[in-house]
Amino acid sequence: MKKATLVYLFILIIVLVGIQFIPTNHNPNIPAGPDDFLILNNTPVQIGKMLKTSCYNCHSEQINYPWYSNFQPAGWLLDKHIREGMAELNFSEFGNLSGRMKKMKLESMIKQIEQEKMPIPSYTLIHRDAILSDSERKELTTYLKTLN
Fold first, then answer.
1. Which of 37, 51, 71, 77 is deepest in the core (most CB within 10 A)?
2. How do residues 8-58 score in pLDDT, each as one tens digit?
3. Can you tell me the distance from the alpha carbon of 54 to that of 128, in angstroms, rounded to the nearest whole number?
């Protein structure tokens, strides 16, 4: 190897090790409260399981961070992704929304699930259990339509 390549490799290793000391801003895992979507709607167990598996890690305050979230830059990207997901829809705070906003969020959820836009491919790539089958997608959207 050329000397310049070794220097660049050494610098890269130093940077990768150094960024491990910069903390992430993990959200605390907060237990479900009365405003949580599942509790608020007395959601059936099977539907709740689908939502928890496919949606809650990015769209609630009940986050189960994977092991790789402790390593940078993966942790930063994951935190950014979760912040964006919760800004769009936070199941933990669903009860705080106005009636009109709840209706809009439900319509959006139905559309996203029917068009297979959610859960997103970058999530299901690692979380294979979050992939919804056609029958699960149908069952979930049918339930959401009853709330709308």
1. 37
2. 887 787 777 777 777 777 666 777 789 999 999 999 999 999 999 999 999
3. 9
- Give the number of domains in the chain: 1
85-143 residue pLDDT tens: 999 999 999 999 999 999 999 999 999 999 999 999 988 988 899 999 999 999 999 99
Which residues 6+ apart lie within 8 Å of 88 measured at CB?
A: 59
**Which pair of structure tokens corresponds to residue 115?**
């068009």
Residue 98 belongs to domain spanning: 3-147
Q: What is the value of pTM for the model shown?
A: 0.81
Buried b / exposed e along 33-61 (16+ C-beta atoms within 10 A):
eeebbbbbbebeeebbebbbbbbbbbbbb
List Cβ<8 Å contacts ≥24 apart for 104-109. 106/144, 106/147, 106/148, 107/148, 109/144
